[in-house]
Amino acid sequence: MNIQNNTILITGGATGIGFALASRFLKNDNKVIITGRRADKLQEAKDIHPELVTYVSDVSKEEERIALFEKVTRNFPQLNVVLNNAGIMHYLNYDGVEPWSHIDLEVKTNLGAPIHLTRLFTSHLLKQKDAAILNVTSALAHVPLAAAPVYSATKAALHSYTQSMRHQFNGQIRVIEISPTLTNTDLGIPGANATGVPVDLFADEVMAGLARGEEEITYDFSKISANASRQERDELFKQLNA
């Protein structure tokens, strides 16, 4: 992927991996638009990088996805890259206590949103030079964390969807999967990922992978799990969920 002179939309771009990638794309002379549900977090991001364009948008909601598409393509007709990064993670026991609304929100945000946004932006991206769709999955797409079953399942489904779209677009739009390992962000319970790799380290690895033209960017445990045999995945599952 060409990492310079693009116009890039990043969902969930105010914090974590999304913000780290937004910062790096800015340094490479790209126009960057970020979205998020919280205006205060978007403002914090813009305070650090005033050149960011920010839109409050909850991509779990169909009407807000449509509004986002219309606004971005109207204001930035040169948009050529969509990075589906927004995600949420709940730890879940099947004891019937967790409200369905929490589970539904996780599915809509992690899976429904990138599928719908891809459909919305496809006709626009097909007209652009160096068009690309980037989907952020997870190492848990290959070896699930039993304590986060819905998150793991949505990322496995997004991995599958990404493969299919890459085949369907046949190079007309580059389709790239970014598969994080455990990264020190506030995904899930704040502070729960403190043992993960630094977000800046992972973001640097992603940019290097993009510059190399990789279509599936993995790192650390995500590289191990993505390339493991079935037998190896079964063993990794036992270790991860011990």
Describe the structure.
The protein is α/β, with parallel strands linked by helices and 242 residues long. The protein has a single domain (7-240), classed as Rossmann fold (3-Layer(aba) Sandwich), CATH 3.40.50. 47% of the residues lie in helices and 13% in strands. The chain has helices at residues 16-27, 39-48, 62-75, 100-125, 149-169, 199-211, 221-226, 230-240, and strands spanning 7-10, 31-36, 53-56, 81-84, 132-136, 174-179, 216-218. A 7-stranded parallel sheet has the order 3-2-1-4-5-6-7, sandwiched between helices. Helix 1 packs across helix 6 (199-211) and helix 3 packs parallel to helix 4. It is globular and about 50 Å long. The protein starts with 6 loop residues before the first strand and ends with a helix.
Write the topology of this structure.
Layout: E1 7-10, H1 16-27, E2 31-36, H2 39-48, E3 53-56, H3 62-75, E4 81-84, H4 100-125, E5 132-136, H5 149-169, E6 174-179, H6 199-211, E7 216-218, H7 221-226, H8 230-240
Parallel strand pairs: 1-2, 1-4, 2-3, 4-5, 5-6, 6-7
Helix pairs in contact: 1-6, 3-4, 4-5
**Judging from the principal axes of the Cα atoms, what is the shape?**
globular
Q: How many DSSP helices?
A: 8
The N- to C-terminal Cα distance equals 39 Å
The ordered string of helix (H) and strand (E) elements is EHEHEHEHEHEHEHH
CATH superfamily: NAD(P)-binding Rossmann-like Domain
- Largest sheet descriptor: 7 strands, parallel
- In CATH, the topology is named Rossmann fold
By secondary-structure content and strand pairing, the structural class works out as alpha/beta
How many strands? 7
- Which stretches are poorly predicted, pLDDT < 50 over at least 5 residues? none
Strand residues, percent: 5-15%
The overall pLDDT, averaged over residues, is 94
**Which strand order do you get reading across the main beta sheet?**
3-2-1-4-5-6-7
- Structurally, the number of domains stands at 1
